[in-house]
Amino acid sequence: MIEPQEPQPRFPSSDASWNDLRCTVVRHRAAVGSVGRRGALSLFAGAASAGFLLLSGRSVRSAMQPDAAANLVLATGSEIVATINAVDLPAAQRRGTLGVILRRSVDIPGVGQFVLGRQWGLSAAAEQQEFLRLFEELIIHTLSMRFSSYAGLRFSLGRSQQLSEDEVLINTAVEYDGSMRFTLDWRVSEVAGVPRVVDVIAEGTSMRLALRSEYAAVLSRNGNRMSALLDAMRRQVATLAARG
After folding, report:
1. How many domains does the chain have?
2. Which range marks the domain in which residue 70 is found?
3. What are the pLDDT digits (tens) for 164-202?
C-alpha cells in the first residue's frame, strides 16, 4: 500500500529565498533571491485548464471594473495592515479577524477548485465538499499565521491593469520591519456579482498556480487517489491547529 504523502502548500521559514518556492513546485531549481523575495516567499509558499473552467462562479462572472477592483484591494489591504499592527490584540483574536477579512475578500472555493484542477471533475460530490472545507481551513490558517508574523506592516496601492473583460490586476507594494519590501499583485474578478480576489502574485509567482502544482504532485505520488489527498490535508489541519 502506498502511504499518503503530506501535501506541500505551507509556508517555509522567512529566511528561505523566493526561489525555494519554485524549487518546491518544479523540484529541480536552486534557491537564490533577494531580501524582498524572501519576504514574499514566507507569505505564499505553501498555499489545469479543466480546473480553470470549474472555478466557482466562473459562469456568472461579468465585466470587472478597475475602480471596483482597486477599492476591494485597498480595503482588504488596509484592514489586514490595521489588524497586524494592532500590537495589543491577542494573537488568537488577530488570526480570527484576519480569517474574517480573507473569507470576505477572497474567492476561496474558486481558488480551491482551480488548485484541484481536473481531479475536481473526477471526484465525488462528498469528496469535493470535504476538499473545499479542508482547503479553506488550510488557506485561512496559514495566511493568517503568516500575515501575523510581519511587524510594522505598510501597504501601498499601485496601478491597475485590465487583463480581460472580467479580470483586473492590481499592483501593490508591501513593506515590513522598517525596510523589507516586496511586490504583491492581486488578480480580481467579479464572482456572482461581487468583486473577489482570485489569485495573489508575489514577486511574479502565482499562489494558485504554485498550490495547484503542489496538490498535483501529492495526487501523482498516491495514484491520483482523492482519499489520500484528503487524509494528508486533515493531518495538516490538525498540525496547524495544534500550533494555535
Report:
1. 1
2. 34-242
3. 888 999 999 988 887 778 899 999 999 988 999 999 998
